[in-house]
Amino acid sequence: MFLTVTLNAALDITYRVPRLRAHSTHRVQEVDERPGGKGVNVARVLAALGKDVTVTGFAGGATGAALRNLLAADQRERPNHARLTDAFVPISGTTRRTVAVVDASSGDTTQLNEPGPAISPAEWQAFTTAYAGLLPRTTAVALCGSLPPGVPVGAYAELVRAARAADVPVLLDTSGEALRRGIAARPDLVKPNGDELAQLTGVTVPLRAARDARRRGAAAVVASLGAEGLLAATADGAWRAAPPQTIAGNPTGAGDSAVAGLLSGLADGLDWPARLSRAVALSAATVAAPAAGEFDPSTYAAVLDRVEVAPQPHAA
Amino acid sequence: MFLTVTLNAALDITYRVPRLRAHSTHRVQEVDERPGGKGVNVARVLAALGKDVTVTGFAGGATGAALRNLLAADQRERPNHARLTDAFVPISGTTRRTVAVVDASSGDTTQLNEPGPAISPAEWQAFTTAYAGLLPRTTAVALCGSLPPGVPVGAYAELVRAARAADVPVLLDTSGEALRRGIAARPDLVKPNGDELAQLTGVTVPLRAARDARRRGAAAVVASLGAEGLLAATADGAWRAAPPQTIAGNPTGAGDSAVAGLLSGLADGLDWPARLSRAVALSAATVAAPAAGEFDPSTYAAVLDRVEVAPQPHAA
What does the sequence similarity comment in the record state about its family (chains A, B) (predicted)? Predict the structure, then answer.
């Protein structure tokens, strides 16, 4: 099975309003609630691809219960998906919400993200024990998203080392100091976006920055560059992979779908160009889907064999 | 005991952000959750004034459970308040949230109100039965706020008639068609704000509009006019009541505190000028309180005997 870790999971709420005007009162027309957090998104795409997956991290309070109920309901409603197993570790705090306010007049989104619950040392200890117990059955693990308050900033470094000790391929998708510390523990793959990569390395040219990030400890770096697709720097070479045309839609969750593509491609033994094609096609299919974070299977099928993968020059 | 009805109760969430910018992403600095809905606010003020009160209406889902837990926690934490009894009727739907986003740079608030759960005919029937069972023990009842989807638009008219049949004084605080229908059932008191009164009557001069609203069926009309205080039109005369000076602060809940003042003053046998003074002082103390919807006891005490109550001319 695959394993995704979401330490700061969320209940994602979307409000649709006719027009958002700061400092006034709005009647919300539509309310949507989904299980959220990057690792949860990755797991849902893996399950849709037919991969059994376990989600772990922290969940607590009324919003944590709502998140878990939505995951279970999703499983019941999608019998053709692979099994998604809930292995969240309970906490005394309350899982955060994110609120996305969609302005129907422009399609623009205003995002409000709660900080997340405080995690106690005992809860962090309970998590690392549960994680160690899951690793022996794990094909590959993705460590995703921000750290909630109370989790040590070196948390991802610890989780990367545990995966490597158990011989489980490990992908890290986070930012800031958590990425800086985590990458030093030598994960198999990191997937920053362009801003995160520049912040990590201080280098603004993506290919140079990706190579710099490899030197910091990642065996491979795949940077997600929005509409320009993916840029990979690996031991086997470097590639750019882009969709055949710009895809219109909502980019929320496109990076998480790329992670699912990379992780499943690794486990399926695909070479780098095929892994990158899968990741780009899943990202495009997520942008094209009407609901944020879903992916559109027909776009996936249509884009998959038309992704343009271009080798990049060897490092100077 | 007093009874307040909140058919569209809410979990009120407040987010504080450094500066709200439409179409960008915000990390929320502070999250506050409170039991919400106008009748719930009225009940909390009545309990703080030493009046036993029962809250009813509909509650359901994770947010309904959170609302009820917060009400219970509030009772435990405030042993000097009178008893607040939870008599919400459970529903299969989920209690709505309201989200207030406070911009710390300006103090301005952007409000997002969910529409509320759909109420089934069986749930409405269960409510009217529960309400009828509570009336014989009720000193006075306040019917407050909007109607959730599925509740008949004539709901308040039905609840007003039931209260009158049980000889229980009834106050109605709502707007639009629910107010128009409810007022025709002859409540003892309606408390619109200036806009609601103008919308009901088509008359923009408040005193004329209040008298027009009496002709539509209300035995008395008290309009809340923001910083200008209250305007009352009753069988015993008409008055304006205003605080001695403008009170700075957050007006959220000021109208609900006025309702609590009017209801408790009626039950205590106060004459109209004394009732209006109490209502104005409670409103001012609510505006002055640091947390929205709370009231500041020292402001209440300081303002109470300095409210200016001026008789208004007889109708032409």
Answer: Belongs to the carbohydrate kinase PfkB family.
User: Is the Cβ–Cβ distance between B153 and B178 less than 8 Å?
Assistant: yes
Q: Is residue B23 part of a domain?
A: no
- Say if B101 is an interface residue toward chain A (CB within 8 Å): yes
Chain B CB contacts of A117 under 8 Å are none
The total of structural domains in chain B comes to 1
- Active-site residue among B173, B188, B256, B296? B256
Dihedrals phi, psi of A16, to nearest 5 degrees: -105, 125
Distance from CA of A29 to the nearest CA of B (A): 7
At B314 the pLDDT is 76
Please tell me if residue B109 touches chain A, with a CB cutoff of 8 Å.
Answer: yes
d(Cα B259, Cα B270) in Å, to the nearest integer?
Answer: 14
Quote the pLDDT of residue B315.
Answer: 67
For residue B64, give the chain A residue with the closest CA: A62
A135, A168 contact by CB (below 8 A)? yes
Instruction: Residue A28: list chain B partners with CB under 8 A.
Output: 112-115
Contact B9, B37 (CB under 8 A): yes
Residue B194 lies in a domain: yes
Which residues of B are less than 8 Å from A112 in CB distance?
A: 15, 17, 26, 28, 99, 101
Structure tokens given for B44: 């909390």
Residue B166 lies in a domain: yes
Q: Provide the chain A residues 139-198 that lie in CB contact (below 8 A) with chain B.
A: none
How buried is residue A46: exposed, middle or buried, by Cβ count under 10 Å (0-12/13-18/19+)? Answer: buried
- Per-residue pLDDT tens digits for A123-175: 999 999 999 999 999 999 999 999 999 999 999 999 999 999 999 999 999 99
Neighbours of A20 (CB within 10 A): 22
| Average pLDDT of the residues of chain B | 95
Interchain pair A114, B15: CB under 8 A: yes
In one-letter notation, the amino acid at residue B227 is A
- The domain that contains B193 carries what CATH number? 3.40.1190.20
- Separation CA A38–CA B144 (nearest Å): 41
Residue B50 φ/ψ region, left for φ over 0, alpha for ψ in the -120 to 50 degree band, beta for the rest: left
Q: What is the mean pLDDT of residues B68-83?
A: 92
pLDDT tens-digit map of B87-125:
999 999 999 999 999 999 988 889 999 999 999 999 999
Question: Do the Cβ atoms of B168 and B2 come closer than 8 Å?
Answer: no
Distance from CA of A225 to the nearest CA of B (A): 19
Which residues in chain B have their CB less than 8 angstroms from residue A101's CB? 112
Alpha-carbon gap: A312 to the closest alpha carbon of chain B (Å): 34
Full domain range(s) for residue A277: 2-6+37-87+118-311
- The number of residues making up chain A comes to 316
Query: Could you tell me if residue B220 is inside a domain?
Result: yes
